[in-house]
Amino acid sequence: MLEIHSLSKEFNKGTPDAQIALDQFAMTIEDGEFVTLLGGNGSGKSTLFNLIAGSLFPDSGTILLEGQDVTFLPEHRRALLVGRVFQNPLTGTAPNMTIEENLAIAYMRGTGRSLLHRTTKQDRAFFREQLSTLGLGLENRMNTRIGLLSGGQRQAITLLMATMVKPKLLLLDEHTAALDPQSATRVTELTERIVSEGQITTIMVTHSIATALQTGNRLMLLDRGQIAMDLQGEARRTITRQELLDCYAR
Ligand SMILES: Nc1ncnc2c1ncn2[C@@H]1O[C@H](COP(=O)(O)OP(=O)(O)OP(=O)(O)O)[C@@H](O)[C@H]1O
Ligand SMILES: [Mg+2]
């Protein structure tokens, strides 16, 4: 379970460039929930993810993951708990390393093993099996450098890296936005499958209202650093695209 209480973050405080990104933000997400998060540009979505993942620290408020206060836990110590996929396929993988080496790093990070651990035959078989679940034939290209892959292939691998060792929480920040429509659809389907098979608690940022309505089981809309809408069940099923659009404009 993720619990966020009264989280605030202001950038460039006390200067003419001051920006309040999150304003007394609060949310509770139960285990196994799959939340889609909408919100205009600059509404605070990525800042929220940065605070949850530990890339940034808040001015005030608390973040509890599985009851543990992680608000000021260093980012590398949260890597065991939080998996993350970014918008840019170039982020999240080491381009000059092979598919196998990237998976090995993610596996070590996820299991808390030393980086000095050498990849065993067993590890390799596990990576191959995991890659084959993507259905992209990448299990036969384990020695290919990640930098040579297409954006869609990279996002699929980054998704695998973020979930290979089940995280307590998966954060997806517009992770299909840079992909062509076909690859985006494939990565979205892959996401739904991985999340549902692993029952992974997930927050997915998207700018597509259709995707937000079709994916997951709860929908939130962020506006000026606060939750403006939180829909589940019947309310989520019956809301129209236009009603959601109107909320952006308020
Ligand atoms: N490192 C930073 N330094 C200064 N201001 C920042 C920084 N990061 C974010 N902001 C500001 O905080 C606000 C929220 O930004 P954030 O990136 O969280 O928005 P977002 O909802 O992810 O937007 P988008 O949909 O465009 O990705 C914006 O006003 C942004 O300019
Ligand atoms: Mg963003």
Explain what this protein looks like in three dimensions:
With about 250 residues, the protein is of the alpha/beta class. It has a domain at about 1-90 and about 165-250: Rossmann fold, CATH 3.40.50. About 35% of the residues lie in helices and about 25% in strands. It is built from nine helices and ten strands. The protein has helices at about 45-55, 75-80, 100-110, 120-130, 150-165, 180-200, 210-215, 235-240, 240-250; strands spanning about 1-10, 20-30, 35-40, 60-65, 70, 80-85, 170-175, 200-205, 220-225, 225-230. The strands form two sheets. The chain has a six-stranded mixed β-sheet with strand order 6-7-8-3-9-10, with helices on both faces. A hairpin with a 2-residue loop joins strand 9 and strand 10 (about 225-230). Helix 3 (about 100-110) runs parallel beside helix 5 (about 150-165) and helix 5 runs parallel beside helix 6 (about 180-200). It is globular and about 55 Å long. The protein starts with a strand and ends with a helix. The model has no long low-confidence stretch (mean pLDDT about 95). Bound molecules: adenosine-5'-triphosphate and magnesium ion.
